[in-house]
Fold:
Amino acid sequence: MDAQGLHDLLAGKFGERVSAFQADALQPWSVVAPEAIAEVAAFAKADPALAFDNLMCLGAVDYPAIKESVPRMELVYHLYSYTHRHLHVLKVMLPREGASVPSVESVWGVANWHEREVFDMFGIGFTGHSDLRRILLPDDWEGHPLRKDWVDPEFYTGMHVRPTAQMAERFQAGEKIGIGPFDFTPFNAHVDE
Amino acid sequence: MTNSITGPIQNRFSETSLVFTTVDNVVNWARKSSLWPMTFGLACCAIEMMATGASRYDWDRFGMIPRGTPRQSDLMIVAGTVTLKMATRVKRLFEQMPEPKYVISMGSCSNNGGPYWKHGYHVLKGVDEVVPVDVYVPGCPPRPEALLYGVMKLQERIQEDHVLRRRAASTGSLAGASMAIEAIK
Structure:
């Protein structure tokens, strides 16, 4: 089935909640209403004509306000059917702040880790997720670094996150090539003056 | 008796004999000749490190036998990108190693953050922020020859060391950086 047919099948079932088909794309996509994504996902997997048995990828994109564009977050679901060998993309448009959508973990188990990663990097919530916590960053990390408004903190547990002028000086002075200036006498870790 | 220089070394000292040297010389020679590195790789540099350990470059020639625990290791080769999350673990592993212990920082990431210098919210800008580094090996990643050269540089430094003499505290690379360590549990 071609992309138009796939979209028509989804739109026929969900009406207004599956809208804005974009055919002129490398991978044609349909826009799904946030609250409907879990239902649409369940249908896309269960329906024998669609049979999307594989969630290839689940990611998010942050679109901050640029010129007149509406600031938004997009969730992108890449679906693939091993049965029919066809592919379709679902997009969910969300507000940039405090967004939350139903989890599709119950449909595709692989979404568990994908949704945790999106939560980790963008701060988007997934209702119904069995274990929504950070997956890559440390548990005590603050903020979501793939958001466009992210600014590096100065420290994380006492370590510099942004390079300091002193670091740059040492690097430019060539101290970090070959033998370092550090006096590595075995006892020096415990030397007291 | 014949004194063949090609025979086993014990043949050359088969008669009762004395060798004079210094304690420094012997101990340093022993230390530098059996640098046991910790089996420990963080990123792509670790692939080059494995190549250095494998048959073609064969760091067994230096008496380097990878150990699976910091308790038995003399040398930590920080091979790869040190993320902030990993930095706390690197610090802990270093602390678990017995003295004397040495650190080789391998590759640009480990030296100063490398490509993550500016745009890396998650990368430590040089492993010398958390552990004292003896030798920095530049490269992205360094070839095995470079790492071996770094090991030989470290051996040179070990040979110059004074075993039974304490030195004053260093004002070296950790002067500005070590303060960060205190906060790491």
